[in-house]
Design brief:
319 residues, alpha/beta, 6-stranded parallel β-sheet, 3-stranded antiparallel β-sheet, 10 helices, 14 strands, 20% strand
Length: 319
């Protein structure tokens, strides 16, 4: 029996992940964890989803709760809870208040679901991945942030639409911070098996414009509809499905680095990894050109600065 728990289940991302997972029909139970004052809303979401799932003959148990005991035996616990980003806000603006939430939830997960994999979606996700790691005391292979998986999917879609080619022919990846300091790996991007640098010689592709658009994608969506919703929900569900099916796919997620990529230490950043039912099976070695390596190290420095500030705040709160 596969059980997934979602902390922050009544939020836009949480409920969309839940419904996407339920429809995929690969999970036996989804726990809708919510604050006590939001449990009735969570219960309403489950009622609504049961009606929809019945139309597709899907029998997935949906459990609304505010009791940490209900996290027991979860294969994965997703943390989406936190203050959402609003138009004009940097993800780092959310760091301190969201760190307090993630810190508390990670500690409770360690008590009530000690064998689970923690997946972090709360922003700023790279910082929150380290917070969840330190607060839970888990092995780093079992604490994963959604990292740049969504960014990579977005860039793939941009290239696909730009040249009107099936997206399956585009192989690209974004690493680094899930934020302004993301690093598109253009040097290893291929289209139809052809390296991008050769492909652009014969096709009109405004690569700099696409990268600029990529870095503003979240804010653009938020400015127009108030929140990002379907993209993040699908990306998160894709990560969860990859883990629970033990499919060993390579996805770009946030993990705590100890020199495996770019000689970067003591910070969580998005890098390509092989995902399995035990979490991160391996961090994939990657080649970067000099510019990409410089940008990756710059992202590491900026994220680490924020992470250190957040951890110091949490330490002072305990004292």
């Amino acid at each position: 029996m596969v059980k997934v728990s979602i902390m922050g289940s009544t939020g836009v991302i949480g409920k969309n992940v839940a419904f996407t997972l339920a429809r995929a029909d690969t999970v036996d139970e989804i726990v809708f964890f919510a604050r006590p004052q939001s449990v009735e809303k969570a219960r309403g979401e489950t009622f609504d989803m049961y009606d929809a799932l019945a139309a597709e003959d899907i029998d997935c148990k949906l459990t609304p709760t505010s009791d940490y005991e209900d996290l027991k035996n979860s294969a994965i616990v997703l943390i989406t809870a936190g203050i959402p980003r609003e138009e004009g806000m940097n993800r780092r603006d959310l760091a301190i208040p969201n760190a307090e939430i993630v810190d508390n939830y990670a500690k409770e997960i360690a008590v009530h679901a000690p064998d689970a994999i923690i997946l972090v979606a709360t922003n700023p996700v790279d910082v929150m991945t380290t917070v969840a790691l330190k607060s839970s005391g888990f092995d780093k292979r079992r604490v994963i942030g959604i990292g740049n998986h969504l960014d990579s999917l977005r860039l793939k879609a941009y290239f696909s639409r730009q040249i009107n080619i099936n997206s399956s022919e585009v192989h690209t990846r974004v690493i680094g911070e899930h934020g302004d300091h993301m690093v598109p790996l253009l040097s290893s991007t291929t289209i139809g098996g052809i390296p991008l640098k050769y492909f652009v010689k014969s096709v009109d592709m405004e690569v700099p414009r696409l990268i600029k658009r990529l870095k503003k994608a979240g804010n653009t969506i938020i400015s127009k509809k108030g929140a990002t919703e379907y993209g993040p929900a699908y990306a998160i569900s894709n990560i969860i499905s990859t883990i629970i099916t033990d499919s060993h796919k390579v996805l770009t997620v946030s993990t705590y680095l100890e020199g495996e990529v770019g000689d970067v230490y003591d910070v969580a950043l998005g890098v390509p990894v092989v995902l399995s039912k035990r979490g991160i099976a391996m961090i994939v070695p990657i080649h970067m050109n000099d510019f990409e390596l410089h940008e990756f190290k710059e992202a590491a420095s900026i994220v680490k600065e924020t992470t250190d500030e957040v951890l110091e705040h949490l330490r002072n709160n305990v004292e």
